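Example record used in the benchmark description.
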Amino acid sequence: MRIVVTVKHVPNPQSERRIENGHLVRGEEDTLNDLDENAIEAALSAKAVVPDAEIIAITMGPEGAKKALLRALQMGADRAYHLCDPALAGSDVTVTARVLARAIEKIGDVDLVICGSSSLDGMTSMLPGALAASLQLPVITDASKVSFSAEAVEATSYQVSTALTLRAEYPLVLSVNDEANRPHYPGFKEMLAAKKKPIEQWGLTQLGLSAEEVGAADSGTEVLDAQLYSQEKNQGTIVTDSANAGEALAKYLVEAGFAQEK
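Model output (structure tokens):
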């Protein structure tokens, strides 16, 4: 069995970020997308069922994105591919899916593709479906529970008050959310071993693509402007308890529309 896990290098949500010329500036504190850790952990669960399975991490991004691959290797991936080319800058989710699909086809004999259900920078949640469409494979998305066998995947996702359980035989694309498992923290030996695992870099030449087929040149969307979100925080009102604080709270709830006065 050959398993490909897509990963992404994203800005750390806790770090200071800025926007220049309509684009988010990535920095030293960028990190592996949280939900991609769940995807790697899911791949390890599949490998536990099929011990001879090979886990391959793949990412598309600038030079710094290699750090996300290193983390994937530390967590248990066997090898990795970095899709890196200046022409890829500005690719929207559909172009990204086509490029990843081309790489997966080049790797060959892939039985299972696992993605995090969303990236914490774009938050479109569209990549798994777009990737499955490009690969012409069935897809199960936003799985909260997953079980693997040697022949198929069974996964449950929760849709508005309904639990939907699906089963699909390999090959397929699967996306998982943060309820699917609890990612482990790699130990010191795993971190050392990761340094010896291969990371191969592919550009457009290796993928058989032209600059006109990727990046902003072929994307169906365009970022016209972007601004940092800011909102004045309401500091609230501190009421010193003088035996009538409860009455003050009740009055506030009524005035704010959270409760009705009887």
